[in-house]
C-alpha cells in the first residue's frame, strides 16, 4: 500500500500563541504558531492542524492573520478548527489559506451545517471533529458518547452512529478525540478508534492521549486510523516528527520519510 | 528564466491563496489571481486550479466565459492544471451525475467507488494523503524530482486518460490513477504541488522555468 499514514502535529492556539494543557487545564506556552509550524514542516510533518481555542470574537482576526502567515510559509496541508459555526467562518478561513476546516460543536447543535458546508466547499475540506467519551462500565459492551464543552457536557449521542451520520452528510474526514485520554499520555482509546474506522468509508484521524511513539504506531496498527495527531510530545521536544516517522516505519507502517 | 508573470485563474471556487503563495515562494516575478481574460492572456504562463465539486467548477468557468480562454491559453503558452483543474480538462466526469469537461485531453473521470480494496485491505475514499508518483515520461516538470517521490492527493474521482501517450505520471490506490497528464504545452496534476512540500515546490519552480516544449 503506497499511500502513507500521516502524522499531524496539532497546535492549540490561544490569542496568537501555541498552548498546551492537560484536560484543558494547566495551560503552558509553547511558542509562536508560525515558528512551531515551520519547525514541524522541516521535520517532515504530513499536515498541520491548528485549533483556535480563543474564546472571544475580537481575537478571531488574530487567528485569520496567523493562518495567513502560516499558509505563506508552510507548504503542506493546513486544517483549522475552533469556533467554526457559519459558512462565512469557513470562507474566511479558506481565504486566509486553510485547506480544510474542522467543525466540532456546531455539528452537534446543527448537523445540517455539515451538509451545507460540504455542498458549498466540497467534502475534501470539511473535517468533523468528534469528542468521544466511554460511557459503558468495565465488562459491558463498549459504548462511547459525544461530549461537548471540552468533554464536560454529554449529548446522549452514540459516537459510532454519529460519525456515520457525519460521513453521510458529507464530511470528508473525522478527527476523533478521546476525552478520557486527552492529555493523559497513556495512548489513544483504541476501541473507539477501531470501531469508527471500521464503520466509516472516509479517513479517520486518531487524537488524544499520545505519550510516546508506540502510542502513535498503535493508533494505526490497532486502532486502524489513517492519521495520528499529537501535540505535547512534539511541542516540548520529547520527540521530533522525524523520529516518530522512523519509529512507525520500522514497525512496517507505510510512511513518507 | 525565472522572471515569470503568472496568472492563476480565479473562477470563484475555493482557496487560490495557496497556489499563488507557493508560486511566489519559488520565485515568480508576479502572480495575479484573476478572472479577467485580458490579464490571463497577458501572463507568461497560467495555472488552472480547482477544488470542490466539478459541476460548480465547470459551470463557473463557463459562466465567466473562461472555458474559451483556457482553450486559447492551451494553444499558446504553458498551462498547469491542478486537481479538479486537471479533471476539467478531460472529456467527461462521473461526478455530480455526469459533467462534461473541456475535452483538451481525451478520457474520463471516474468515482473510486465505495468498495475499493487493495488485497484484503479496504481503502478509504477520498484518497487523501501522500502517495508515490511513478513518472511515466521524461518531462521538464519532473526535473530534479525523484522517481516515486511522494505528493499530496485529496480526491474521490480519478482520471482515466484516453491516450496512454498523454500519461505523464501515475500512482496506485486500489486502481491505477493518472497522477499527471501532459500534451504539448499543457501539464496537469491530480495531486496538489502547492501542498506537497519540497517535491511540489520543485515542480512549480520547474513550471516557472518551462518554455512549453519537451
Automatic annotation (TrEMBL), chain A:
Cytoplasm is among the record's keywords: yes
GO MF annotations, alphabetized: imidazoleglycerol-phosphate synthase activity; lyase activity
Catalytic residues of the enzyme: 12, 131
Record bears the keyword Amino-acid biosynthesis: yes
Chief location bin: cytoplasm
EC number of this enzyme: 4.3.2.10
GO biological process, one term: L-histidine biosynthetic process
Subcellular location field: Cytoplasm
Signal peptide feature range: none
Reaction catalysis annotation: 5-[(5-phospho-1-deoxy-D-ribulos-1-ylimino)methylamino]-1-(5-phospho-beta-D-ribosyl)imidazole-4-carboxamide + L-glutamine = D-erythro-1-(imidazol-4-yl)glycerol 3-phosphate + 5-amino-1-(5-phospho-beta-D-ribosyl)imidazole-4-carboxamide + L-glutamate + H(+)
Keywords tagged on the record: Amino-acid biosynthesis, Cytoplasm, Histidine biosynthesis, Lyase
InterPro entries referenced in this protein's UniProt entry, alphabetically: Aldolase_TIM (IPR013785), His_biosynth (IPR006062), HisF (IPR004651), IGPS_HisA/HisF (IPR050064), RibuloseP-bd_barrel (IPR011060)
Pfam families registered for this protein in UniProt: His_biosynth
Superkingdom classification of source: Bacteria
Cited HAMAP family: HisF
Family classification: Belongs to the HisA/HisF family.
Subunit structure: Heterodimer of HisH and HisF.
Name recorded for this polypeptide: Imidazole glycerol phosphate synthase subunit HisF
Organism: Halopseudomonas xinjiangensis
UniProtKB/TrEMBL annotation, chain B:
Location (main, coarse): cytoplasm
GO MF term list: glutaminase activity; imidazoleglycerol-phosphate synthase activity; lyase activity
Any one of the GO CC terms: cytoplasm
UniProt domain Glutamine amidotransferase: residue ranges: 8-208
Entry keyword annotation includes Signal: no
Subcellular location per the Swiss-Prot or TrEMBL entry: Cytoplasm
Keywords assigned by UniProt, alphabetized: Amino-acid biosynthesis, Cytoplasm, Glutamine amidotransferase, Histidine biosynthesis, Hydrolase, Lyase
Spans through the membrane: none
One record GO biological process: L-histidine biosynthetic process
Record-linked Pfam families: GATase
EC number: 4.3.2.10, 3.5.1.2
Pathway in which this enzyme or protein is active: Amino-acid biosynthesis; L-histidine biosynthesis; L-histidine from 5-phospho-alpha-D-ribose 1-diphosphate: step 5/9
Catalyses which reaction(s): 5-[(5-phospho-1-deoxy-D-ribulos-1-ylimino)methylamino]-1-(5-phospho-beta-D-ribosyl)imidazole-4-carboxamide + L-glutamine = D-erythro-1-(imidazol-4-yl)glycerol 3-phosphate + 5-amino-1-(5-phospho-beta-D-ribosyl)imidazole-4-carboxamide + L-glutamate + H(+); L-glutamine + H2O = L-glutamate + NH4(+)
PROSITE patterns in the cross-refs: GATASE_COBBQ, GATASE_TYPE_1
Residues annotated as the enzyme's active site: 83, 192, 194
Subunit structure as annotated in this protein's UniProt entry: Heterodimer of HisH and HisF.
Function: IGPS catalyzes the conversion of PRFAR and glutamine to IGP, AICAR and glutamate. The HisH subunit catalyzes the hydrolysis of glutamine to glutamate and ammonia as part of the synthesis of IGP and AICAR. The resulting ammonia molecule is channeled to the active site of HisF.
Protein name as catalogued: Imidazole glycerol phosphate synthase subunit HisH
Species, as recorded: Halopseudomonas xinjiangensis
Gene: hisH
Amino acid at each position: 500500500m503506497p499511500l502513507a499514514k500521516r502524522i499531524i502535529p496539532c497546535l492549540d492556539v490561544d490569542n496568537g500563541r501555541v498552548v498546551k494543557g492537560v484536560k484543558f487545564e494547566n495551560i503552558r506556552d509553547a511558542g509562536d504558531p508560525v515558528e512551531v509550524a515551520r519547525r514541524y514542516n522541516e521535520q517532515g510533518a504530513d499536515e498541520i492542524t491548528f485549533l483556535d481555542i480563543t474564546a472571544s470574537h475580537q481575537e478571531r482576526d488574530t487567528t485569520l492573520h496567523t493562518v495567513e502567515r502560516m499558509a505563506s510559509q508552510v507548504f503542506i496541508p493546513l486544517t483549522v478548527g475552533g469556533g467554526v459555526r457559519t459558512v462565512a467562518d469557513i470562507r474566511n478561513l479558506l481565504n486566509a489559506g486553510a485547506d480544510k476546516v474542522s467543525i466540532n460543536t456546531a455539528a452537534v447543535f446543527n448537523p445540517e451545517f455539515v451538509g451545507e458546508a460540504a455542498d458549498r466547499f466540497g467534502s475534501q475540506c470539511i473535517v468533523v471533529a468528534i469528542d468521544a467519551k466511554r460511557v459503558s462500565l468495565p465488562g459491558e459492551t463498549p459504548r462511547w458518547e459525544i461530549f461537548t464543552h471540552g468533554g464536560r457536557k454529554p449529548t446522549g449521542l452514540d459516537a459510532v452512529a454519529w460519525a456515520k451520520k457525519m460521513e453521510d452528510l458529507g464530511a470528508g474526514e473525522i478527527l476523533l478525540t478521546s476525552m478520557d485520554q486527552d492529555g493523559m499520555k497513556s495512548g489513544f482509546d483504541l476501541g473507539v478508534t477501531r470501531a469508527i474506522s471500521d464503520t466509516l468509508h472516509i479517513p479517520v484521524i486518531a487524537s488524544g492521549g499520545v505519550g510516546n511513539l508506540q502510542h502513535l504506531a498503535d493508533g494505526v496498527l490497532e486502532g486502524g486510523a489513517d492519521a495520528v495527531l499529537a501535540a505535547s510530545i512534539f511541542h516540548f521536544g520529547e520527540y521530533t516528527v522525524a523520529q516518530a516517522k522512523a519509529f512507525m516505519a520500522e514497525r512496517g507502517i507505510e510512511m513518507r520519510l | 528564466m525565472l522572471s515569470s508573470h503568472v496568472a492563476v485563474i480565479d473562477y470563484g471556487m475555493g482557496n487560490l491563496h495557496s497556489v499563488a503563495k507557493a508560486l511566489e515562494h519559488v520565485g515568480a516575478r508576479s502572480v495575479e489571481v484573476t478572472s479577467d481574460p485580458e490579464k490571463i492572456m497577458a501572463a507568461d504562463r497560467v495555472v488552472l486550479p480547482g477544488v470542490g465539486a466539478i459541476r460548480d467548477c465547470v459551470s463557473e468557468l463557463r459562466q465567466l466565459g473562461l472555458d474559451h480562454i483556457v482553450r486559447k491559453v492551451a494553444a499558446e503558452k504553458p498551462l498547469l492544471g491542478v486537481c479538479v483543474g486537471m479533471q476539467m480538462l478531460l472529456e467527461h466526469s462521473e461526478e455530480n451525475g455526469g459533467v462534461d469537461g473541456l475535452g483538451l485531453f481525451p478520457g474520463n473521470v471516474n468515482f473510486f467507488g465505495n468498495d475499493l480494496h487493495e488485497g484484503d485491505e479496504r481503502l478509504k475514499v477520498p484518497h487523501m494523503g501522500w502517495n508515490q508518483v511513478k513518472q511515466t515520461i521524461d518531462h521538464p516538470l519532473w526535473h530534479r524530482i525523484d522517481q516515486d517521490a511522494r505528493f499530496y492527493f485529496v480526491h474521490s474521482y480519478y482520471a482515466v486518460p484516453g491516450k496512454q501517450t498523454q500519461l505523464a505520471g501515475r500512482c496506485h490506490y486500489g486502481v491505477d490513477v493518472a497522477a499527471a497528464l501532459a500534451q504539448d504545452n499543457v501539464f496537469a496534476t491530480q495531486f496538489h504541488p502547492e501542498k506537497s512540500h519540497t517535491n511540489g515546490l520543485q515542480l512549480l519552480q520547474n513550471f516557472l522555468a518551462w518554455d512549453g516544449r519537451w
